[in-house]
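Quick one, T. Sequence first:
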Amino acid sequence: MLTVESLAKSYEPSATASRRTRKDGDGAARKKDGTDAARGQRTTAAGTRLFAVDDIDFTVEDGELFTLLGPSGCGKTTTLRSVAGLERPTHGRVTLGERVIFDAERGVNVRANKRGLGMVFQSYAIWPHMTVFKNVSFPLDVMPRVKRPAKEEIARRVHEVLDVIELGQYARRPATNLSGGQQQRLALARALVTQPDLMLLDEPLSNLDAKLRESMRFELKRLQRELNLTAVYVTHDQAEALVMSNRIAVMNNGRIEQVGKPRDIYTRPATRFVAEFIGSSNFLEGKVTEVSGEEVTVETPHGPLVARECPRRPAVGDAVLLSIRPESLDISERAPASAVNSWRGRVHNRAFLGDSIDHITSVGETRLRSRSNPSVSIPPGTEVHLGVDPRNVTLVPVD
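Structure tokens:
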């Protein structure tokens, strides 16, 4: 089990300003070594500090795949590198099982190669002059003589892990002869052969094309489940996180906004950022007028709306935000049987997406997106009725 407590990494403003940075594709500042630059600022006893990550807490259970999900520059890679021992945090504590591998207060910082971790990065770092077998055996071959397994044991472990990831028949081939997906599995095999206590995976599928990336999600999840691996997985891809994870931590600006199971994160977002980042949502602002049992009635610019999904119970008079997923919003040219949670509007635009169709409907000054079966195609300009079940309306506290 991995436990991360109050993890933070800070910089002095002057040092951060003078550090050479580059811009990643999302426009977030990043340091020359590729790690996340400082995102937040606060005043401490030592003065004003800039934080790449701040007050990070989470636990990864044995056999769990735990994902750090967020946009570029949010601090997820800094968090992973801090667990790996490739970055030294300024605050916090990290334990692996019963072993403390980092403790800022006590000055404990176990070297990366002594932490018992397996790591797979964006770049697979495949040795082009070696065979598949030698690429996998490399971490064992370079161990100190007193710790290095016998040649027979190395061969057994390499063949065993190659068979598990279904590359056994390629053992004697040059590694460069493998496809992109096979090279990704080879990098995973090289990390597994050392029999690590914890696997760390930093955007391992990002270099694959879209179709291969989708199939490899299921392949990685199968391997993790069959081998009972404990893993921390970093990605910016929401679909990847939802498919593969046992639990997800959504990060933003160096902090964790919500931790939960994929379905809970999607259906019960705790903040506006989570609702916007995971999939897409329609938002309506309003004020609570009634709380009755499981139902909360909110007065909005388009009339009262009833919600049942409330991560935090509000009080009458509270300002709140209502989140409605497009697939939960029904659209029809016929009036609904119930007037609860329904509006009249006019279709502004529509978009065919293959397996679904989106309609953008104007309700007063607000535009709402609905997603339905592609057989439901309503031309722009048509008057329609929109409706949503109270169970599919999530009440989000105003930031």
